[in-house]
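To the wet lab folks,

You asked to see what we're planning to order before we commit. Fair enough. Below is the target structure as C-alpha cells, and below that is the sequence we designed to fit it. If anything looks off to you, flag it before the synthesis order goes out.
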C-alpha cells in the first residue's frame, strides 16, 4: 500500500518544484478566475441581464414584516401602503417609457 501511495505522489509532483510555489500559482489562478467572473457579471449587469451589485431596494422582507405588524397595529397600514406605492412608482420610472403627461 505504501508503494502505491509513493507512486501516486511521484506522478503528481513536479520535479524540482516544492509545494509552496504550486500553492501560490494555484491561488493566483483561482484569484484570476474569480476576477474574470466578477468582470463578466459586471458586464452582464451593465447590459441589464442580471442584478449583481447595484440592486434596488426590494424591501420585500420589510413589507412582509409591515403586513404582520399591520395586523397588530392598524396604524402601520399607512406606512405599508406608502412603501408599496413608492416601489410601484420606482418600477414605472425604470421601465424606460416616457413620462406620463401631468406626472
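Sequence we intend to order:
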Amino acid at each position: 500500500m505504501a508503494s502505491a501511495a509513493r507512486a501516486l505522489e511521484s506522478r503528481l509532483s513536479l520535479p524540482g518544484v516544492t509545494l509552496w510555489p504550486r500553492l501560490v500559482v494555484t491561488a493566483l489562478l483561482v484569484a484570476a478566475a474569480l476576477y474574470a467572473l466578477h468582470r463578466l457579471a459586471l458586464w452582464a449587469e451593465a447590459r441589464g441581464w442580471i442584478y449583481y451589485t447595484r440592486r434596488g431596494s426590494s424591501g420585500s422582507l420589510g413589507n412582509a414584516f409591515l403586513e404582520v405588524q399591520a395586523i397588530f397595529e392598524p396604524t402601520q397600514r399607512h406606512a405599508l401602503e406608502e412603501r408599496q406605492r413608492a416601489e410601484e412608482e420606482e418600477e414605472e420610472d425604470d421601465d424606460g417609457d416616457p413620462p406620463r403627461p401631468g406626472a
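Structural context that might help your review: Residues 19-46 form the longest helix (28 residues). DSSP finds four helices and no strands in the chain.

Thanks,
Computational group
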